[in-house]
TrEMBL record:
SUPFAM superfamilies given in the database record: S-adenosyl-L-methionine-dependent methyltransferases
E.C. number: 2.1.1.-
UniProt xrefs under PROSITE patterns: N6_MTASE (PS00092)
Protein's organism: Endomicrobium trichonymphae
Family, similarity comment: Belongs to the N(4)/N(6)-methyltransferase family.
InterPro entries, per database record: DNA_methylase_N4/N6, DNA_methylase_N6_adenine_CS, RM_Methyltransferase, SAM-dependent_MTases_sf
Biological process, per Gene Ontology: methylation
Protein name: Methyltransferase
Source domain of life: Bacteria
Length: 214
């Protein structure tokens, strides 16, 4: 079996075969998108891509604890297929998260410009970990919140006061991509990985769906 606190560079199926069954609290998967931007992201057809995707999902599911959570990155189009497959496998859909990458101006003139990726959040049952208080985000209306902090806002007969940590995190995440985060002299540069994810994004998922030292 694999050791904890160690990085492995393995074929995913070799990796899953060495992971103890029902031992994983949280899986964050950033798999191929079939966008043909790299060798490992290129498939002969969409059906070949789905065959590979469903195969690694089948290998992953047995490694999750009954209280485990699963996050999968991909394009909205691919996520539509992945979502249905996960539902058919008996997993519980929690959220379709939209990552707004703040990725600059698009160039498409035949459709709306792409500037986001999707993240599917599934669990094995309803007794999963979710630390909602750890991932609060700043309130958007600062003036209204400042007023509410002093006198509160009357809601359903009760006086509501804003939380010092901010509002509950929603399904649209405004987090700048690594491509734009690492600009040099205002120009984007080529990252080492074609689809690297911001640490801030991964940290949010870990804080929400796992507990320290457990």
């Amino acid at each position: 079996m694999l050791e904890s606190n160690k990085i492995y560079n393995l074929d995913c199926f070799t990796f899953f075969n060495q992971v103890e069954k029902e031992s994983i609290d949280l899986a964050i998967i950033d798999p191929p998108y079939n966008m043909k931007k790299a060798k490992g992201d290129t498939f002969k057809s969409h059906q070949d891509f789905l065959y590979f995707t469903f195969k690694w999902i089948n290998a992953l599911i047995p490694t999750l604890k009954e209280t485990g959570s699963l996050y999968i990155f991909n394009t909205p189009f691919n996520c539509a297929y992945i979502l249905q497959y996960l539902v058919d496998k008996g997993l519980i859909f929690q959220n379709w998260i939209t990552w707004d990458k703040r990725d600059g101006l698009g160039t498409s003139k035949t459709k709306y410009s792409n500037g986001q990726e999707s993240i599917l959040f599934f669990t094995k049952n309803k007794k999963h970990i979710f630390n909602y208080d750890e991932i609060r985000v700043p309130y958007e209306s600062t003036e209204r919140i400042e007023h509410a902090s002093k006198k509160g806002i009357l809601k359903n007969g009760k006086r509501w006061f804003p939380n010092d940590k901010g509002r509950l995190c929603g399904e649209v995440w405004h987090i700048v991509s690594e491509r734009h985060r690492n600009k040099i002299n205002g120009k984007t540069i080529k990252n080492e990985h074609v689809a690297s994810k911001p640490l801030e994004l991964i940290e949010r998922i870990i804080k929400a769906s796992s507990n320290e030292k457990i």
